[in-house]
Protein 1
Amino acid sequence: MYGVCLQYTGNGEEASDVLQEGFIKVFENLPNYKFEGSFEGWVRKIMVNTALEKYRERHNLYRVDDIGTLNEIEADIEVGEYTGMEAEDLLDMIKALPPQYKMVFNLYAIEGYTHKEISGMLGITQSTSKSNLSRARTILQRRVEACNRIKKKVING
Amino acid sequence: MADRKVNIDVVFRNGLKDYEAMPPHDIWGEIQPSIKTRFNLPIFVKVAASLAVIFTLAFFSYRLGINSAIRVAENRSYFPSERASLQQTLVQNPVILAENRTAEIKGITYNGSPLEAVVLEVTDNHRVATNEHIDEIFIDNAVKLFGPAKLQDESDPKSQYYTIEEYNSIDFSAQNDNPRDRVEQKWTIAALASPTYYTGTVNNGSQVVLSADEQPSISYAGGVAFSYRINERVSIQSGLYYSNIGQRINGISSYAGFGPINASKGDTPFEVATNSGTIQTDNADIFLADASGTRVSSDYSIDNFDPVKSSLSQIGTSLEQSFRYIEVPLSLRYKVVDGTLGVNLFGGLSSNLLVGNNVYSNNDGVIHYIGKTDGLRGFVISSTFGMGMEYNISKSISLNLEPMLRYYLTPINATSTGTNPFSFGLFSGIAYKF
């Protein structure tokens, strides 16, 4: 679960806070666990919700203004001969995203929420959510491509 | 090699799927003292769970016990400490006193032959003996049966006993309902509790669309039941129950801190359409945002007011409707199987008086009061049907387990939506007969 917390926060300190608060909620709400779905899924949901609360508490500190809206771009990208990435590398790329992009990308691409649901969770419009996702994807694509090029260079000498 | 496309979402989703990271060690130490003691399960759950466990243990011990025949086959006397357990066993199990053997019970020696070498079934069904009378079974080579046929002359002890020949000719199946054993017990009082699963049917087709985000919730019921036995099989039952039913409405976010903004505009309430009636907020500090855009109506909406920009804090992601009723049932109960483990069927009507109507915002079980549901009827009639199982641990006390289906004949709301809920409960409890 610490990995999940790292995904949603920018650094280890924030992730530790989320993990700690999340586990307190897990223990406090154990009697309310309805045995619907897996227990791990339930705990993960609490961690994500806790990270969202933390994000909302601090959103004014690092709010990203909507610089116009951007059409949602394709998730499929040309990266040459994709050689695979280490989880640590992928996590570092997500952590380096601006907070709101990070939230939208995690909620959409990893957790599978829709833009409608994300707009309710983050208090943003659906078009902002789509725009944030596009920007996040663009940034991540560039980083994956760059990482891939370096890897190929190392492999090919 | 040709370039190929990869899906950036899939790259990250799969790449991080099994990713595990070790958190700093000091985190765990700080969690322990922070946890509040909030593990108090509702009392109904505790009672129901305890009774279910007791019932299950009692049932299995009964089933296992009935199949194990005890042979009193040793030619020896029993020590006082052994007698008590032997007597207990004799009442519950068939006893076979083998030929050419003797056994001493409560100071009396019994012979296995010739006349006493019969198979003596000492079972509850036959009501041949009780714990206190175990030493009277073989007096004068006869068997004592506590039936009226041999009790005409109580001054003559001999007339109270059957001979072996008479005993063997008795059709015990016809003797099972010995009225002498039960004639006095007309009344039963029982305490029962149950978790209940609630859901509803909607009469108006246009409202069915609302059902998509409405999710039944597990709630609780409990109370006291009285019954009066009219004859051997039929009894009439009433009582007083308290029940809590409700449902969850997903997709509606609640925010706190709206009070100052709302007050400046004249305290605008929020209305939320549900199949059970319209929710009206009476907590002016609450702002409601509807993900679907179909349920919430107010002067404010997520389109013209951004709760996040106005620094409201989110306190819930769904709403919980809770309806509490006091019930007075009137039902008939028919005994299908009589014995240590009894089975009966029951059905009837209940009058339900609405005593609680609250709506809460919910965030992973943390709730806050926000308002009430409009248009609920104060009084509704429901029908009940169920099957009761009772395990008699003595003549007066039994443990009960009763699956029960309840259907509300009148809609719980007076609006055009017309919701007729039904609920399923598994009641368990203890009953006393007198």
Protein 2
Amino acid sequence: MKIALCFLVLAVLPPVARAQAVAPDVLVKTITDEVTAVLKKDKDIQAGDTKKAADLIESKIVPHFNFVRMARIAMARNWRSATPEQQKELAAEFKTLLVRTYSSALINYRDQQIDYKPLRAKPEDNEVTVKSDVKQSGSSQPVSIDYEMEKTDNGWKIYDVKVGGVSLVTTYRDTFASEVREHGIDGLIKSLAAKNREPLGSKAGRS
Amino acid sequence: MGSRSLGGLKKLCAALLLAGSLAGCATSGGNPADPLEKVNRAVFAFNDGADKIVFTPLAKGYRAVLPGFFRTGVSNFFSNLEDVWVSVNDVLQGKFQEGLDDATRVIFNSTFGIAGLFDFASDVGLPKHTEDFGQTLGSWGIESGPYVVIPFIGPSTVRDGFGLLFDYKADLVYWATDSVPVRNSLYATRAISNRANLLDASSLLEQAALDKYSFVRDAWLQRRRNLVYDGNPPRERDESDDEPTK
């Protein structure tokens, strides 16, 4: 009877507990498949609706990222001199910046073929890299996209994405450092906020 | 670049050497890899301006006027010519299997791929590689040296700029014809084709970067490092990432 109850409890356990069981490479593949399936169908996003693309990112992608850690990596040693309040703002603004950047990338999405490389990790690893190659139509060379992931109580979270070996997070390091040097941490938060208020595609526009 | 290009290259070489020696004494701004930041920023601004006024409009026009399959054909054609030098660099780096693969790519694509217009080899499991002499020097253990922005060419380093001299001389377009106008047209077509391939990326860059100069520099340096290690660079220790996230 007790054993049966145990099974019953296991069966109705909330998804959080099950999320832990999802392997990191499976998680990345699932997210990517879901998002690309929407992109293939959604005529609005294909026509350049960045707002809708941002909503898609917010609902499907954002929950799987650790933006606090991303902001911390980008801030390097300045992170420690930021107050908890500033840290919160930095993570929020950085998140907005990345989501907006991704939204403009998504509207340029065409049919792309993604190959995942076998995950090289031990079961006890708390940090893994999920590697993939994206082949774009019209370009013969695949672009590598690697996801740096960490194990948390809420499943695996992505804390860096490397496109062709270029980290989306550390690439901001020098910019952040010089901004902090010249205008302080609040100055950096201000310029991030200002950047995030610019209308999307205002500078270069879609081509 | 035309008949005077050799003189131009000598000047470029001299500039790079000068950059290298200046680097020793110049004061550093932010990034230790970029002791020449002041000069680099000026050249970057110049390149960026030229890009906005000349190259981006040309590339956009090219993309607007010509159909996709045609542009892919042009891009493949030049990529096929480049693969010859890619395979030589594979061998120079001791990667004989890749060298063989890339040479096979050239043979397949030049024949079945109709003079390289189709990248047939990619479809049969021989993906393109990116190799150049700068990477070869890097694989031999030569450090990249200071970051340098070269007029009209863009981001580079002292080592990679030096490598460009070899890439330029090994370029099949350089040897393809004695006719300077034909050669220059080929150079121009390739430049526009390459720029057109990057239009999406450059508009993304405008969106992503707070300070375009340092963003491009840091992305470029990471990219080159990644290429030298063929996609598997050793992890750099990260002092800022020691404490666990709350």
Protein 3
Amino acid sequence: MEVFLQTLVSGILKGGLYGLIGMGMSLIMGVMGIINLAHGALMMVGMYVTFACFTYAGIDPYLTIFISMPSLFLLGMLIQKYTLNPLMEVDSILPENQVLMTVGIAMVLTEVARFIFSSDYKSVRTSYSGATFFIGNISFSVALVAAFFIALAFTLCMFWFLLKTDLGRSIRATAQDKDAARLMGVNSKRITILTFGLGSALVAAAGTILMPVYYLFPDIGGPFTRKAFVITILGGLGSTVGAIFGGLTLGLAEAFGATYIGMAYDDMIGLLIFILVLLFIPGGFKRLLKV
Amino acid sequence: MRKYFPILLLVILILFPLIVRDHYHQHLMILVLMWVVIGSGWNVIAGYTGQVSFGDAAFFGTGAYTAGLFVTKLGISAWWGMLFGGITAMAIAFPFGWICFRLRGAYFALATLALNEVCRHIATIWESLTDGMVGILVMQTFVSKVPYYYISLGLAVISVIGVQFIMSSKWGYYFVSIREDQDAAESLGIDTHYYKMLSLNVAAFLTGMAGALFMNYMGFIDPEVVFSLHDISIMAILVGIVGGVGTIYGPVVGAFVMVAVHEFFRTGFFGFFKGIAALTGSDMINVFAKYVMQAHVLGFGILVVLVILLLPNGIVGDWNLIVKKIFPVKTRGATG
């Protein structure tokens, strides 16, 4: 029972973070209809920003959110403006050119990171990295709990932004119907740039709050891109609410899989879920929840 | 002139190992020919049918492991893998396509990415069958590279001609119609699911054979090599895109360019920087050369970005555009 509860707790904590990662991807997918395969690489860049700030300037990892998020917001906007948007006008055979472009961007980002920081494993060790507290017999990692609540706060902010502000409404309108939104006077090009920036900033935040308990190397983006993808498929394509449920499900499944099946199967489980979802609930949670 | 170009190319390729005798260049050409096969396979499913695959390594690795396991488990020659590698790759492609062709466009692309990872994990975890990370070592049949060269050449020619044959048959038109508009194709009575499956299986067969060839030629495989996302799957996409999506000779050009670029970076511009460093005795350039040699993936990434932005249909697809840009006056009268 204790093992079960412990697994449950770690799954939920992980799931909150995954939700934040998945939400950025969902947002981009909803507005632009493309899968951003550079998502994990952007997270990696965010993590390196945190690492650099911590190592060279001694800034607390959690405070570096205020550096990593704006910088990744800017990077995301530049990527959208100068590489992805021009592709909309290019006449090509394959409609997936933008997706392939994100692969290229991911490669460039990864290699530039390798150039600067080398391939070595890096980590941010703070006084609270290893700290835990107990409720009953269940241990909670302080950093993970903090990460969970920060992720939760970001998620709520995001919802408030999407539901209540003008800009958020424009983003949702563009996601629902690009042409109709344009006819209503929404500058859809600006919205795509903004959305990519926002998605990048969100994933950078996820990377930053993960940093105190995780390690870092240039290729870390790949696994997280895959996770984000599984989450978005789970949650239903382009659904932000779905992304949170998808994140929680993936976190729980990974935790239980690691405990009861074996650590080696960690990555497999996500992919297995992915195939099961495709077989049985093709629309993801979006379909089930009608959100 | 255009009609005779393929024949001319074939003659040059047949004569190549007789003229160029050093092993390094022969090795590179074998790799090019192997990539022609893989690129052609990718081109069928992605270029012609429009279902972009990020998981070619799954088929490649399956083919390679089939050949390897024939030796380690059955004790027969790895060359049998050339025959069965393609078939086992199809055995992977079949159930996968059955499930995942309900996804469209980019979502299918990501499903293939997942397939790639699943296959790599299975090959790593299932140690009793595949020896996991230890990999499989097979003695090479020939000492000389020439037999391998001709076998690769044969396979490449078969795949190019095969793809050309398929694409000029009824299948080919169905494939292209699915790429252009799946709903329209379906409304005209084309069983899109069936033809997408066909296309995927053709691609898997070719890629699996290339994998078996790789096993035979290299003599060593492990999951990280043959199921590699960057070195196989992405490279296959690059070969397709750089050469020209949806063209018969695109993969041929793409394979040549990509292997050349890869070597170009890996050897530090063919020792150019090393030479300069030796001449000037500057440490800076030596360090820089070392960076350049590590940067081939960066080079690939930049190449993808540039090619997609400037030549969205690849070198073959946008050939007329390139010619016009380079010789704006001379070719005014030339026809496309």
